[in-house]
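Protein in question kept underneath.
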Amino acid sequence: MTTDRSKGRFTFRTAAVLFALSALFELVGMTQPVPLFGEFRGGTAALAYHLIYALLFLVLAVGLWTAKPWGYHTIFIGGVLYTLDKIQFLMSGNITQEFVSMIFRGQEQLLQAVGRDTVMLSLTLVVIAFVLGWWGFAYYAYLRRAYFKGGGG
């Protein structure tokens, strides 16, 4: 017989592994500049940005794997942080334009063929899809919140 606590165990543990990998990727890229508040920032700002996300992803990984109640709450805290970060990215028109130029550096003919407006629309839709994906996961967690009641799954 399956209990409510075990429902979602595979999904949450899979997500925990993926969040742990995301934390590692943040640590590997700690020196990379980040789009923040209308410009690309490096140095201490980029380091802090990457460390905050690495810590968030690591806390999520542990919370999801161990089924702790604080892991459930971290999903929503992370969702708010992630959403605000992506909103500020999309609202900084000049930085999104610069981001597209960075992506297509050396491939300017391709950018011209596809069209900058098409690429910008695609980027916007992808960012929105990622934010909606986070909140879809949060809704799933809400539906399976019994998993987080006892810890350990």
